[in-house]
Amino acid sequence: MRGIYILSSLKPIDINTVFNKRVRMKDLYRNYGPLFMLILLTYLSFVMFRPYLMTMLGALIIAYLFYPLYKVARKAIRYDWLASLLICVLVLLIITIPVFYVVNVLIKEIPSVYIWLSGYASDTGTLVSLYQNILSSVGVESNFNGVIDGFISSLLENLRAILTSVPGRILNFTLAILFLFFFFKDGDVLVNSIRAYLPFGKAKSQILIGEVKNTMDAVIYGQVVTAILQAILATAAYYVLGLRVPLFFGLLTLVFSVIPMVGPAFAYIPISITMIVVPLISSGSTAGVFRGLALLAFGIGVISMVDNVVKPVVISGKVNVHPVLIILGIVGGITTFGIIGVVLGPVILSIMTALLKIYKIDSA
User: Fold this and answer.
1) Is pLDDT at 6 greater than 60 in this prediction?
2) Percent of residues in the chain assigned helix, strand, coil, to nearest 5
3) How many CB atoms lie within 10 A of CB 32?
4) Is 294 exposed, middle or buried (0-12, 13-18, 19+ CB in 10 A)?
5) Buried b vs exposed e over 276-289: b needs ≥16 C-beta within 10 Å?
6) Do residues 322 and 237 lie in contact, with contact meaning Cβ atoms separated by under 8 Å?
7) Which DSSP helix (H) or strand (E) runs through 361?
8) pLDDT 10s digits, 169-228
9) CA distance linking residue 272 with residue 119, whole number of Å
10) Cβ atoms within 10 A of the Cβ of 109, count?
11) Which residues of 15-29 are buried (b: 16+ CB within 10 A; e: fewer)?
12) Whole-number Cα distances in Å, 296 to 232, 251, 287, 303, 306
């Protein structure tokens, strides 16, 4: 009886309802099927190109930096591919020659750095004890020789890892040149394509692209170019004043100079103090006082003044990017993406800022 009751309670099937549901499913597939396929293929493409994503972004940043030079060459050369090839060769020379020189010198200077630091650690027991006592008073234990040994070991380990990954680096280098060639040749087409696919109107798309351009100008032209000039001046000063490993400390100055609101003073001031204090404590010699004071004066009067003189000329008052945005972007970008994060981090934050501006316009 219960089975008969259940069967009798079933409603008859409405053919029109089933047909309408099938029609709706077809509409859903027709409307959202291409979107689903696009998302799936985009994800698969990302997985496929992910190992070379940083290479492509690095080439994009270099292309942006040298694109004005390409525009000049394009006016003088009839064929765009030839102008692109010429600038690629020029960029290759500009980058590889200093890199090979720096690597060659650093390989020669690494033992000198170790001996120099170890000598200071052994010959200046009073100074090291003073540092350790200061650190111990605030609850921090210090092992100066251990720090030096750890630094050198880490440096040699990284050098060994670089040498074992040479084939992969050759592939990435080749791809970077290829990307660079097409970014020069088809840069305008790429920008126009990005603008066309942005889900905003022309005015809002211009806000987004303008924000990214301003940030890249501020970081690349304002920060990186200025930092390179400061590092060159500092390295020259270290060499003239007789520092044993000038290129090593010049690279250290470059790292500090790239970071906004830190600057080269974080390098040359400790070096100046060390040049003055260490000879006084170790042997009572005042020979280092003049050199240390000269480096300090040159650092304050010339190296640090580059920020106030060169940077405004480079940026030319065209950008208005808050320093905090650049700091957070650079620090977070380096942590997440490596050296390329110096530019990529602030660009990501600038896109977020532009989207917030667009949202504010829409909600007004």
Assistant:
1) no
2) 90, 0, 10
3) 10
4) middle
5) bbbbbbbeeeeebe
6) no
7) helix 341-363
8) 788 888 889 999 999 998 888 888 888 887 777 778 888 888 888 878 777 777 778 888
9) 17
10) 18
11) eeeeeeeeeeeeeee
12) 16, 18, 15, 10, 15
Distance CA 342, CA 332 (A): 9
DSSP letters along 182-214, please?
Answer: HHHHTHHHHHHHHHHHSSS-HHHHHHHHHHHHH
> How far is Cα 311 from Cα 225, in angstroms, rounded to an integer?
8
With contact defined as beta carbons under 8 Å apart, do 364 and 237 qualify? no
Whether this model's pTM surpasses 0.70: no
State phi, psi for 138 to the nearest 5 degrees: -105, 15
Q: How far is CA 188 from the centre of its chain?
A: 24
The residue with tokens 């509409």 is 27
d(CA 241, CA 360): 55
The pLDDT tens digits for 307-343 are: 777 766 666 555 566 667 777 777 788 788 877 787 7
What is the pLDDT averaged over residues 108-135?
55
Nearest CA to 109 out of 147, 145, 154, 155 is that of 155
Name the strand (E) or helix (H) holding 164: helix 144-164
Q: Where are the domains of the chain?
A: 2-47, 48-193
Q: Furthest-apart CA pair in the chain: how many Å?
A: 113
Asked if 260 and 323 count as a contact pair (C-beta separation under 8 A), the reply is yes
Task: State the Cα–Cα distance between residues 49 and 353, nearest whole angstrom.
Answer: 27
C-alpha dihedral (31, 35, 37, 38), degrees to nearest 10: 150
CA–CA dist 134, 74 (Å, integer): 61
Backbone torsions φ then ψ of 318, nearest 5 degrees: -90, -15
Binned at pLDDT 50, 70 and 90, residue 84 comes out as: very high
Q: How confident is the model at residue 7 (pLDDT cuts 50, 70, 90)?
A: very low
CA 276 to chain centre: 35
